[in-house]
């Protein structure tokens, strides 16, 4: 019996659509009110509160945050002056108020109306389209969200932080639509123009390469990321899955083995990825050591799957004439197995070893749990 190869699905990439960078260029009266839009909102909420206190004197001024961290300092694009004024300022305020009330259908309808206004400038259109895209994403309408994000980019009115956040969001939406080639093209443009080296951006590219079947490139990309971020377990497991998909099991095992030695593998699925990797490489004693350590520490819990894995070890041990180890492994597998097959195999090995009484006891347990061929167990009991 050949052990099944472990394929750890790449962790799904989740994108939080951000308004904070968009809103920062509006006047003091235009503060975002929807909480938890992304990780930077808490900082913006504090800034918005300060702005609200002085909005009467700054009503029609574009507010710039001197302490704002630039998200894409190496961007090649010349950032336009992102601002609105007059009637359009009021329209954008109304649009954002709808978003704050989570009236997503209202946001989309008003955004369409705003961009159709003859006085709408590039900034007004980009802002409206971006908000509509976020609203569409909130409604799980990925096709519409992608269309609005693209229109926001094409309008080219946002500051660099907002523009490139929008571009990255478009790549994520395309990824979620499984339009991997489109997503890769969008992301490559994003990386070329921002010069970003952030792990979250580069890992998306590696994931896209994997989904496109370009496993060698994906594996190289993940390994480069791990070299720079050795403690990031999500990157590690994605790299392992990609290497396995590319039939580079030795390389996957190296990554997992190193992580295991550093105490990073703390979940049963992670340990299984390692010991099945060892099995695939015929490193049976190493697989057993990981399994035994995992069970003793409570990381690996008794289950039918673990029983099957112990049966693999048992079958290999018996094939190598290591009867004692085969008996030990089948004995471990029996109680946690979904049926009596492990006990039946145990009974056969015991019987061949001359341990008739123990073989009969195991055969009876096999019958009690149920086996595909009960006559085999009954013959052992009849001897």
Task: Explain what the structure shows.
This protein is mainly α. Among the domains are: 9-60 and 69-196, Alpha Horseshoe (Serine Threonine Protein Phosphatase 5, Tetratricopeptide repeat), CATH 1.25.40; 302-383, Tetratricopeptide repeat domain (Serine Threonine Protein Phosphatase 5, Tetratricopeptide repeat). The chain has 19 helices and no strands. The longest helix has 17 residues, at 122-138. The two termini are 28 Å apart. Mean pLDDT is 84; it is low at 1-66.
What is the fold-level CATH name, i.e. the topology of the domain at 9-60 and 69-196?
Serine Threonine Protein Phosphatase 5, Tetratricopeptide repeat
Average of pLDDT:
84
Helix content: 55-70%
Radius of gyration, in Å, reads 30 Å
Name of the level-1 CATH class of the domain at 9-60 and 69-196: Mainly Alpha
Number of DSSP-assigned strands: 0
Distance between the termini: 28 Å
**Shape from CA axes?**
elongated
SS strand fraction: under 5%
Class from secondary-structure proportions? mainly alpha
Order of helices and strands: HHHHHHHHHHHHHHHHHHH
Instruction: Examine the secondary-structure arrangement and name the CATH architecture of the domain at 9-60 and 69-196.
Output: Alpha Horseshoe
Q: pLDDT below 50 for ≥5 consecutive residues: which ranges?
A: 1-66
Taking the sheet with the most strands, its summary is: none
The number of helical runs is 19
